[in-house]
Amino acid sequence: MDTMRDRFGPVLSRLLDEDPRVAVVLAEIGADAFTEAQRKHPDRVINVGIREQLLVGTGAGLALAGLRPVVHTFASFLVERPFEQVKLDFGHQGVGGVLVSAAASFDWPAGGFTHMSPGDVALLDTLDGWTVHVPGHPDEAETLLRHAVAAGDDKVYVRLSVQSNARGLPVDGARFRTVREGRGGVVIAVGPMLDNVLAATEGLDLTVLYATTVRPFDEEALRRATGSDTAADTGAVADVVVVEPYLAGTSTAAANDALADVPHRVLGLGVGRAELRRYGQIDEHVAAHGLDVRSLRERITGFLGARALV
Predict the structure, then answer these.
(1) The model's pTM
(2) Where is each Transketolase-like pyrimidine-binding domain found (predicted)?
(3) What is the CATH number of the domain that holds 225?
(4) What sign has the CA pseudo-torsion 6, 9, 10, 12?
(5) What are phi and psi of 167, to 5 degrees?
(6) What are the beta bridge partners of residue 6?
(7) Range of 252's domain?
C-alpha cells in the first residue's frame, strides 16, 4: 500500500493543473515529487531550499497575492521551527493557506529528535482559526487534501503519517464518525490510532468515535455519544478517553469544554513528553508511549473500570 505522502505529490500536481489559484511551496523535502509539475507550472511550484522561515513567509506572500498556497515539509520544520512566521505571516496578516506536514510524531526514528514533532497540533492550538486534519489512511489523506485546498481562504493543517489503518473510511473534513456503539464510555480514536483502539476495545461495552478532523472539535458528536442531555438530568458521569498520535492531552481541553455542563471525566492518551534517545523503530516508539494494543486496553479499562465490561 502506498503512504499518505505518496499521494501528496500526485494529488497536488492534479490540483495545480485544475486550479490556477493553487501554488506549492517546498523546502527541498518532497521536491522530487513535483519535477514535472514544476516544469509545467514554474511560477506556482517554488522550492526555497532549506530555509523554513522563508518557506512559510513565501506561502503567506502568495496568499496575499490571491493564490492558495500549499506549504510542505517535515512537521518539525513546518510548525515548530518557523512558528513565528506561521503566527504572524498567516495569522496576523489574516491570510489563509494549507500547511501539509510529513514525519508526524516519530515516523523517521533514524532522523533523531530534530525530525520528531509530537507537539505540532498542541502548538497550533495556541493560534486562532486553524482547521486540523489528521487522516488515518492514504485514501482519507487524498480526500482531506482536496478539502483543504478547496476551503476558500481558510488556514488548514494536514498531518500526514506513514502510520496507517488497514482501510480508509469515508471522511467529510468536519465530523467525527461512529464506528462502534456501547454504553460504558466513549473512546475517540484520532487518525492512525483507530486500528489499535478497535483492537484494544474489542469485546468491551464502549462507543468508538473516529476523528480525522480534530479542529474544529466535533462537540456535537461527543455530546451525542455520551448522552450528555440525559446525563445532565440524571447526574450520570460521562467518561471519555481521547487517543491521539501526538502529544498526550492535546484534545482533553476541547473534550472538557464540550461536556462542561455535565459531570464527566476525560483521559488523554498519546505521545509522552520524555525524549526516547534510543531511536529504534516506529513500533517501538508506539509501545514505549503506551499506544500499542495491549497497553491501550490496560489503560482504557483501568480508567473506565467495570463500566467498560460487557
Answers:
(1) 0.96
(2) 2-168
(3) 3.40.50.920
(4) positive
(5) -140, 155
(6) none
(7) 177-308
